[in-house]
Design brief:
Keywords: Cytoplasm, Endonuclease, Hydrolase, Nuclease. It comes from Helicostylum pulchrum. This is Endonuclease V. It is a single chain. The protein contains 6 helices and 8 strands; from the N terminus they run αβββαβαβαβββαα. The protein is an alpha+beta fold. It has a domain of about 160 residues: archaeoglobus fulgidus dsm 4304 superfamily (archaeoglobus fulgidus dsm 4304 fold, 2-Layer Sandwich), CATH 3.30.2170.10. It has an 8-stranded mixed sheet, sandwiched between helices. The chain is globular, with a radius of gyration of 18 Å. The chain starts with 13 loop residues before the first helix and ends with a helix. The chain binds 2 DNA strands through strand 1 and helix 2.
DNA sequence: GCGACAG
DNA sequence: ATCTTGTCGC
């Protein structure tokens, strides 16, 4: 049984932080950044099912979440499976450590899908948050990918600064505002210290001027991630699987509230 | 001391 | 993450 080492309200101790950092560093050794897929990256027609995951919360409630997993069929992007998990979270949101707060219920939903509806087991999962684009190159998308052994792509709606590597948020912002003119345009995010490509800012719609921040989660290259994400944005800035998981989990929370539960 | 800070 | 109001475009 996992030991509870921190209460919800308390700030995490330095010991807890180093413990989490060590766990991220260890799990990162199992992190694969090349394509290991069951479809041909040159032929996305081979993708049948793609999943999205997200969590929603009742207004003003940081602890009682609803986790959601949706599976969409390709290329029509219709929901063929959705499942929810009401869950209590025992940690606050701490930038850099999102996975320790949210990954467990998501793993549970993946496990349940594999047992109950294996025919819908996805070939790739899109995760709300970062993968490689992270201070220790191991965000929630990587974390979920390694622990589930599934290909994952990280999709962040806002940019996460990486100290010493991607420091100047305003410069990066100015640059991509200038460069990203139309859907499909992207700008790699390269660390100034190491030269590492952490991910990219990708414009996913002609209408939305703001990009999304795409980074490798697990078992997929950045180039393939970009192609997959673009195929999943026929209309909106947010890729359809994430958008569907977000809308469904929010609707679930609203329904909960209506029952005065 | 202050700002920054995936979700 | 969540709330909120209006505004613009199809």
């Amino acid at each position: 049984m996992p030991e509870i080492t921190s209460t919800y309200d308390a700030d995490p101790s330095d010991e807890q932080i180093s413990k989490w950092q060590k766990e991220q560093d260890e799990l990162r050794e199992r992190h694969e950044t090349r394509d290991r897929l069951d479809f041909d990256p040159e032929n996305l027609q081979e993708i049948k099912y793609v999943a999205g995951v997200d969590l929603s919360f009742p207004p003003g409630d940081e602890e009682n979440a609803v986790a959601c997993l949706v599976v969409l069929s390709m290329p029509d992007l219709k929901i063929v499976y959705k499942q929810f998990l009401e869950t209590k979270l025992y940690l606050p949101y701490i930038p850099g450590f999102l996975a320790f707060r949210e990954v467990e219920p998501l793993l549970e939903l993946i496990k349940e899908l594999k047992i109950n509806q294996p025919e819908f087991y996805p070939q790739v999962i899109l995760v709300d948050g970062n993968g490689l684009l992270h201070p220790r190159q191991f965000g929630i998308a990587s974390h979920l990918g390694v622990l589930s052994d599934l290909p994952t792509i990280g999709i962040a709606k806002t940019f996460l600064r990486i100290p010493g590597e991607l420091d100047s948020v305003s410069e990066i912002k100015n640059e991509y505002k200038k460069v990203l003119k139309k859907k499909g345009d992207y700008m790699n995010l390269i660390g100034t210290g190491s030269g590492t490509t952490y991910g990219c800012a990708l414009r996913t719609s002609d209408n939305a001027t703001n990009p999304v921040f795409v980074s490798q989660g697990h078992r997929i290259s950045l180039q393939t991630s970009i192609k997959v994400v673009l195929a999943l944005c026929p209309q909106y800035r947010i890729p359809e699987p994430i958008r569907a998981a977000d809308l469904e989990s929010r609707a679930y929370v609203r329904a909960q509230d209506a029952m005065l539960k």
